[in-house]
Amino acid sequence: MKIYKLNSSILLEYQDNFYQLEDESWDSFINDDYLDEKVKQIASNLSPISNSDALLKHELDAPVVGQELWASGVTYIRSKQGRQEESAKAGGSDFYARVYEADRPELFFKATRNRIVGHGGEVRIRRDSNWDVPEPELVLLMSSSGKIIGYTIGNDMSSRSIEGENPLYLPQAKTYDGCAALGPCILVAESPLKGDTNIRLTIERDNEVVFNDSIAINQIKRGMEELAGFLFRECSFPQGALLMTGTGIVPGNDFTLQAGDCISISVDGIGTLTNCVARNT
Ligand code: DO4
Ligand code: MG
C-alpha cells in the first residue's frame, strides 16, 4: 500500500489499483496512527482511476509538506569508516568512532520542504565544495505521536570536503538548497520492514555506471524505533516528521559527484528515486 503526493492531489495505490483524493490536505491525511486502515477503508469506498501513469509522470511531487526532515548519522560501519578517513587530518575521526558506539545516536536537522526535491528533481552540490557524494537512506515517516507509519527513500546529499575540514561544519556540509531528495512515494507501514530489505545506489555519468553498491537494512547498528524515539524525546512535530536513518554506502575516497551525474536509489518494496545533479551557481 503506497501513497504518492501529486501537485494538487493524493494518489493511493492498493492491491494494484490507484485511487485519487482531491481537496485533501497532505499534512492532515498522513498524520494518522492508523494510516494503513485509513487507506484500506478509502480504497473500499472509491472507484479506481485509469490515468495513474500520466499523473505519476506529470504531477509527482516530494512526499513532504509541513514535516521537518531530520537525519541520523554514523549508523552503519561504512559511514563511520568513511568519515574517520575524511576527517583524519583535521583530528575529527574520534568523534565518529565514539558516536557509533554511544547510547545516544547522532541526529541532525536536515531540511524543510523548500530545500527538498522529489523524484526527477535536481539535487545540487555546493559551489564551495569539491568533494561531494549522495547518501542513499531509508527514511521513516512518523505521525505526531512518534509512531512509525511509513517509509520512503532519501538522498542525504553531503559535502565531504566541508565536513572533513571540521565536524562542526556539519550543518553547512548537509543543509543547502537542493540538499535532499525524497520519494517517489510513502510505503505505508503494515509491519516493520524485513531485515534483508536492500538499499541500492547507482550513479551514472554520460550514460555509464560509475558507481554501484547495495546494503541490507539489517546492517544498521541501531533500531528504527530507537532512532524515532530519540528524535521525539524533547521535540514535538505537530505534522509528523521524516527521519533519514543513515547511509551504509559511501563511494571510495577518489569519487566525487559532478554536475550532470544521475543518482538512482532503490529500496525493495518502495521503488526507485532518481535525481540528476546540478551545481549551485
Ligand atoms: O556524521 C555525520 C553525518 C553522517 C550521515 O549523514 C550518515 O551516516 O548518513
Ligand atoms: Mg546521511
TrEMBL record:
Pfam families according to UniProt: FAA_hydrolase
Protein family per UniProt: Belongs to the FAH family.
Molecular function, one GO term: hydrolase activity
Protein name in UniProt: Fumarylacetoacetate hydrolase family protein
Organism domain of life: Bacteria
PANTHER family: 2-DEHYDRO-3-DEOXY-D-ARABINONATE DEHYDRATASE, FUMARYLACETOACETATE HYDROLASE DOMAIN-CONTAINING PROTEIN 2A-RELATED
InterPro entries: FAH, Fumarylacetoacetase-like_C, Fumarylacetoacetase_C_sf
Source organism of this protein record: Gilvimarinus gilvus
Keywords, sorted A to Z: Hydrolase, Metal-binding
Fumarylacetoacetase-like C-terminal domain residues: 103-277
